Amino acid sequence: MAEEVLDYLVVGAGPAGVQLGQFLGHAGHRYLVLEAGSAPGHFFETFPRHRTLISINKKHTGYSDPELRMRMDWNSILADGDDDPVLFTDYSEKLFPDAPDFLRYIADYAAKHQVNVRYDTRVTRIRRETESALFVLTAGDEEFKARRLIMATGVTKPYIPQFPGIELIDQYVDVSVDPADFTDQRVLVLGKGNSAFETADNLIEQAAVVHVGGPRPVKLAWRTHFVGHLRAYNAGILDMYQLKLQHAILDGDVREVRKDADGYHVKFAFARADEVIKEIRYDRVIGCTGFRFDAELFDEDCRPELTIDDRFPAQTPDWESVNVPGLYFAGTITQVRDFKKATSAFIHGFRYGARALAKVLNERHHGKPWPNTELPAKPDALTDAVITRINRTSALYQQFGFLGDVVVVDGDTARYLEEVPVDRVLADPPEDAYVVTLDYGPDHDKIDPFDFVARAAQDKANDHGEGHYLHPIVRHYRRGELVATHHVTENLENEWDKEVHVEPLTAFFTREM
Ligand SMILES: Cc1cc2nc3c(=O)[nH]c(=O)nc-3n(C[C@@H](O)[C@@H](O)[C@H](O)COP(=O)(O)OP(=O)(O)OC[C@H]3O[C@@H](n4cnc5c(N)ncnc54)[C@H](O)[C@@H]3O)c2cc1C
User: Fold this and answer.
1) What confidence tier does 231 reach under pLDDT thresholds 50, 70, 90?
2) What's this model's pTM, rounded to 2 decimal places?
3) Which of 26, 63, 400, 470 is the most buried (most CB within 10 A)?
């Protein structure tokens, strides 16, 4: 192996690395996935700690179209050229499934597709040869070489904020998950992401007081539409807070933690109240402050630049490192591209990102253009193509505003390209192009989700208006400049095939062409 030079090395056999392996293999590239664990999906052997996935597994949809079913199946990964895919919905009946079911699923996927993974192989150093620019990865006493490297390592290190006493507190990664260990205790959970609320939710019956604290106010997923914000599923503590049942949410920063025989003494600076800093006593403090990418493996001369508090690798619209050519990223670490907006942090988002990355690699390194179909550059033909896609696509539905279909017009013909990152299109814009996305309207996260007056856009032609809820948007760009936007009106059941959807769209294309 030492002397073999591969087209691609992929580090990590989580859902992203395994799926990418399948795509690379199917395209005929020479690749190898290196995985520290003994089986695929190693992350899910430990996480989520409370063993329930937050990704929806809606098995019963009433849809027969497999593409539509994927809109409700957030855990299956994709496979290129497979008409009979392995689907997670066959592994669990539960809407919020158990992590061990995902492990069974991903092992079967990897076996079915014979994904080329070397298990029990932890990469400890990544360097780049000066002359050849090859990536050289060290694992144990072996070296692996490739022209290109794809990091699909997930978030491997806890992100730990710094304040005096941080070393005294428990951490999400290894704290007890048995509520009995917290009976009648006062517990502070630090952080306001899903791991914090998952931890708090697990304790609300048994602990006397649970405070969830962090600098930013709680954001509700059903308002922001971001899956990583607080989900109704974990919101029991919010209910108890609002009903004055001891548990509470605190907005502010921990300044210091001290520990003595009486427990933990936490100096908490409240963000909103005038009391500013208050010392509160707890029996336990648990840090649930998120995770980050580990760049320490890389030698300094090929270490990727980091962003967002140094938590993630900075990436171009091609998922390439901004400072290390040939180094790409896949999986949850691609969430920097649509941070806290769309779904690249989660399987149901990055599975489409990984599929698009495979197309990017084919285009950039193997001379294969982005797959496209040709159609007449006529309003009716464009309308037909767009209406057909928006009524089926799962990729644009999940990766709202981030992936788009692109119609490139050139004289009498047009080319239709599916699922291109919107920022990639705009980075190198064609002369004349339409970008089709599904998206929420502007300020959608500022509107009360239960204010039905504000959301009355449904099924009214709103050529000039903007729906708040998920709906198709067609934007016309000339040489990268936005010249016109059309909103296809909202529909309760996401069926955009009525006259009210089709006719205004045709009129839009007629005006613009
Ligand atoms: C607490 C928590 C709960 C989550 N729950 C969900 C959920 O329910 N649904 C969902 O869609 N997303 C969830 N996520 C988001 C995300 O973690 C998962 O979608 C998924 O694990 C990401 O897949 P991945 O392939 O990018 O990375 P991972 O699944 O983390 O896979 C990375 C792989 O790389 C391997 N690896 C790392 N470093 C090395 C190395 N140096 N050498 C060799 N191998 C290495 C690891 O062993 C691992 O197998 C959660 C995240 C957190 C933090």
Assistant:
1) confident
2) 0.95
3) 400
